[in-house]
Amino acid sequence: MSTEQNKSMLKRIFSELNKGNFKVIDELFAEDFVDRYPAPGETPDKEGFKQFLAGTHKSFPDWRWSFEDILAKGNKVAYCFTMKGTDKGGYIGMPPTGKKVSYRAVMG
What we know:
Largest sheet: 3 strands, antiparallel
CATH class: Alpha Beta
Structural class: alpha+beta
């Protein structure tokens, strides 16, 4: 894939996740996908990752992922993103706070 195709795929993944469409994981992630940092109790495969995302979306139903920056070269992509939402509860067993939260990370 070209650099632009990789960037476009990443944008599509996050766009679908913003809609709560976790089937995009099955469509675009490799069959042998391994989550190197699975949530407690989740399997490190696509199914476990989808369960983690579904639980997070339930806890933050208004979540939105946005990109700060996307860097790509060949088949490698790194990105900085922000996730914002309102804590409605249940995230990793914690009670709801009702507060708006923001999480920023760099992945690559």
